[in-house]
Amino acid sequence: MAAAAAVAIPTADADWTVVRRRGRRLGDAPPTACHPDAPPPLPVTPIPWAPSDPSLDPARVSRLVARTHAAIPRVEASRFYRRLLLPDSPLRRRLVLLEPVRISLLGVGSFESCPVARLQLALAALLRRDLLPDAASADLFDPVLSAVECAAAAELGFSVPSLDDGCRRRVEEPTLFYMPHCEVSLYDALLAANWDSPAQLRRVCVLGNSFQWYAIQAEYDRSGPAAKAAHVLGARRFACEEPVGETGDLDDEDWFTRAFNETSWHFFEVDDGVNLAASIAGGRR
Fold first, then answer.
1. CA end-to-end span of the chain
2. How far is residue 153's CA from residue 140's CA, in Å, rounded to a whole number?
């Protein structure tokens, strides 16, 4: 039986409210066609990283760059992307308040072999171009990236780090993290790295799987991965969440829908007096 997932939508007075949405069966994860079913354990501390396939073929790099460039206008012309660009939307106002100066695309998968990953990379390029300042920087990472993909990323304006930090990335400047269909442990690791103060957490914006949906999963399965993500569960108390688009905003083609379904924005508008440690304890309960 399908379950109703909790999401937040903007109201007429620009606040966001939690509503119910029909969704997958409880316990189901979002489609992750380009990601392994059983990812390896996350590194506790950053470890040196090198591409999974070190061979570098310039012809493959050129083809991959061209294929990614071809995906950009397709995403740009979509109904759901036009919805993101509404000039007076709550999303745009929150981004203005956050003033992100970096976008990090984490967990993108192999964008050479997977059409979904290329569409997600195209969205990251558009977000950087249209929603971030001209001087904003960009990086991307996934342990499965090849040398060809790293070279293509560089041509597309994205740097690739030489360390695998397991998403335990403490930000020094307001950052938009685009983490398409990642495992819940990755979102939890990112939040944990920025959990020491409300001011630090306010620098983070996450575009990824719905945290409200993870809360529902945790209620359904008390021993599952979502139930162990204490920071994700704790953050739902003060996270402002808005879905990227409902089903009607997505292209009918399968690859497009799988790239952007079940995705939400999360802003952490937490007051200075909030006890974050207590929020984690509340999340565990």
1. 26
2. 8
3-state SS of the chain? CCCEEEEEEECCCCCEEEEEEECCCCCCCCCCCCCCCCCCCCCCCCEECCCCCCCCCHHHHHHHHHHHHHHHHHHHCCHHHHHHCCCCCHHHHHHHHHCCCEEEEECCCCCCCCHHHHHHHHHHHHHHHHHCCCCCEEEEECCCCCHHHHHHHHHCCCECCCEECCCCCCCCCCEEEEECCCCHHHHHHHHHHCCCCHHHHCCEEEEEECHHHHHHHHHHCCCCCHHHCHHHHHHCCCEEEEECCCHHHCCCCHHHHHHHCCEEEEEECCCCCCCHHHHHHHHHC
Mean pLDDT is lowest, of 104-113, 151-160, 247-256, for 247-256
Read off the tokens for 11. Answer: 């109201």
pLDDT band at 246 (very low <50, low <70, confident <90, very high): low
